[in-house]
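Run log, item B.
One chain of 1012 residues. Sequence copied directly from the ordering sheet:
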Amino acid sequence: MHTLSKGGTVSGIRIWAGGLLLALAVGGALYAGAARTVNDDAAQRFDNLTHAAQHSLATRVKSYSDLLRGLEALFRTSDHLTRRQFHDYVTGLDIARQFPAIESVNYAVAVTPAQRAAYIEAVRKDTSLSPGGYPGFAIRPPGERPEYAVLTYLEPDSLLAERMGVDIGANPLVAQALAQARDSGEVGASGQVIMIKGPPAHVGLGMRLPVYRNGMPQGSVAERRAAYQGSVGIGFGVAQLVHSALERSALEPLGLILYSATEPLPADGDVRITPQDRLLFNDDGDLAVAPPQPGSDADYFDQVLPIVYQGGVWKAHFRVRKAELYSGFDRYFPWLALAVGLAGTMLIYGYIYTLYRSRRSAITQRTLLDTVLDSVDAYVYMKDEDLRYRYVNARTAAILGRSVDQVIGRRDGELMLGDAAAASQRTERQVFDSGTKFVGEERFVDAQGQVHHLWSVKVPLGLPGPVTGLIGLSTDVTELHRLKEQADAASQAKSDFLSNMSHEIRTPMNSIIGMAHLALKSVADVRQRDYLQKIYHSGQHLLGLINDILDFSKIEAGKLELEVLDFRLDTLLANIASQLGDAAAVKGLVLQFDIAPELPQRWRGDPLRLEQVLLNLASNAIKFSDNGSIFVRVRQSEERASHTVLRFEVQDRGIGMSQEEVAQLFRSFHQADPSTTRRYGGSGLGLVISKQLAELMKGKVGVYSQPGQGSTFWFTARLEKCAQASDEGIAEVEPEVLGVIRGASILLVEDNVFSQQVGCELLEDAGATVCVAGNGREALELLSRQRYDCVLMDVQMPEMDGFEATRRIRADPRLAGLLVIAMTANAGSEDRARCLEAGMDEFVTKPIAPNLLFHLLAKWFRLRGGIGGMGGMAHVQAAGRGHAPAPAARAPEGRDTAILDLATLALTFSNDAIKMRKYAQLFLDTARDGIAEMEQAMALEDLGRLADLGHRSKSSALAVGAHAFAALCLSIEGLRLGGDMQQARALLTALGPALAQVAEQISLEFAASDAP
């Protein structure tokens, strides 16, 4: 296997190396093509720039020739143009801004030897511009010549001293150019390149245009010579001309070298730079250095173009670095082409190679997959949209009792028994319809009849489109199922044991706490009250410990719930001192309590759990100490707007612990040193419970300890601030609560004699009338003879337990609405659910706290409209069956509040008689409609509809105070849970007379209120 893998690796490297070479070749070709394209685009841009520059230069030179023609036209306006007129005209041209390259504007007069003296005299006397004239004027250079071309008018004035009177025709080249311009009548170059020293040094050129006398013919050369008067000219710097033409434009990046051509342009248009050409301008600024020749540098674009102007030709050598014409994209385009070529070729090559390899390895992979899946300890299969098998592994085929070939293409119905196939198809069709996977347990019977429990996962294929198939994986969990059943049975046995033990322990505890409570109400002696309070609080604490031991599994599962009650810190610590003071005194120890002065005494939390943790830590401190004091401290650890975290510490001077022993604390059934169990006793469970309780109270627990120096155990708890709290250890019941209970008729169903005595005295002290039944059967007999407002039902009793008795009460239409409150010593959640399932309305655990019981009774009596709110039901329902009802308590003036108690309506409408009458009449109308609908439902024998109508009418009856009518409606509503047509007819028959009694009572009530 290793050799094959190594050989495959070497072969793969060679194949990918070949692909890389191909990719490099393709990428290189693309790079070259892209580079050529970029260079061609840049060359085209360079050609456009050079022709634009050529045009700009030619245009600028033409503008200068146009200026000359304007000057010539100025002279045609007058036969005698004065110096002042010339000066004003040139000033108006704004030469410096409009023609920045022009350095001088002048007018040269043609003078013959005969005219020389008169000409000189006339200039000297010219005062048109200078008041003093020009007395020193003379023609320069001196000497006799056949003709003169004397600079007479010059602008700017700064040139007068240097140039005025200069005979420019004395230079043969200039004279030749003047003669050509005179004979042709066109603008001509000066014919002389002038090096101007500057600064800066630069080349200057001149252009001149002949001026003819007005009125003389100019058709032929002879006529033009006869009419020739002189010439106007300009002198300009070549560098300034170039700058003004190219700067501040797209042409600015161009480099320019300008030559003056000495020979005519060739006919083929191929302009070249020759050694005879005179350098006029170099953008490097140095005319003394030989400029680069076209084509001398491959990094530059070069082009030579002619600039033709009046009387001459320039050769413009344009050059620019190629990189300056490349855009940002042009610089990266060849490399991008290379990268795309490499990547694209490698992707295509890789795709083709992958297809090749995948096809080549398909059979190998399928074989490997079959080998793996056949080795998996699970049933793996795949089905199509028709639920036919498309793949199964060997284990699936084996459990179906077929070979793989016999399974493929078949449905479950062809391979399994009917029930198993139908169940499998239902779940799989649900996967197809919903598009969601199925995870759950399935039951399968194999060909040998053996039952298998399978944990299956079925996943749809084809999502997010339509589902085209599914993949299933089932694991045989039959053994786990068997082990789970055994564990459940063991857990149930443990729960039953704890439930029975709880009942056996809680029943005497109920008597102890109840008797202590009753004794405290009648004993005045201080010492006796102290003993009784200690008995009471110790009983409460013992009850708490029983609860913790009973619910230890619940604590480990995190299901223990905390109570939120008002309490005082000093009372809490006083309870600790009361319960542990004697034990500490026996060992010569002193209990010292320290509450931070700034802490308030009143808090909201679970005082029982706090006391339990403190008792555990303090009792441990007493247990492991032989002398000194035990300090119990309370400090504030953290304060927030809504809560405060308090820190409780218990410090002793006992045996202490090492760090290794501290690390082993807070573990179940564990003590720091096993030898301490033999010496001091204990199960090692207390610290675990303390840690769990501290964490439930959003706190932490810890310890500081050193061997021989003692230990400090601490824990924190989050508590709410309390504005008010009772200062008494046993709070008094509010008068309004007792007022609701007073006069109630309560049936106490209890088999324990002591519990009967405690219950009777507690309820009778509250003002209730109590009747006792020893078991469920006696309770049913009493209920059949007498009406009660409430039944307090014990659960575990001989002959008939509370569950069966409650079920029979709910099955009796006369008693279906009776309030039943369960009393049980079993405090588990399963026991609560069982009580509510049997039909009980409420659930309280033994031993029962008197205050809790009184508040619970008051709450339910209020919800049911007070005492007698449901009691009338028995009488009305009995009347429906032909029995004479027991006489109800009558209000003064013959009003029966069982039939109608307007106090409910008066409370709703604040004794507004008009609104009360209106609402009562509205109730009568809707009740009659409701009875009519019930009769229709009865005719159709639709008990469900009848129950719905009963519920609707019941709500209206309770709102108006028609309690007897509401009780009948409640019984009709109860038919939903079980009843027959005979019961329904009897109840419906009783509704009409009951409503008539309500109508009569309403008439009596409002007639009495209307009487004077």
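Observations after the first pass:
- Residues 2-76 form the longest helix (75 residues).
- The longest strand covers residues 710-721.
Flagged for discussion on Thursday.
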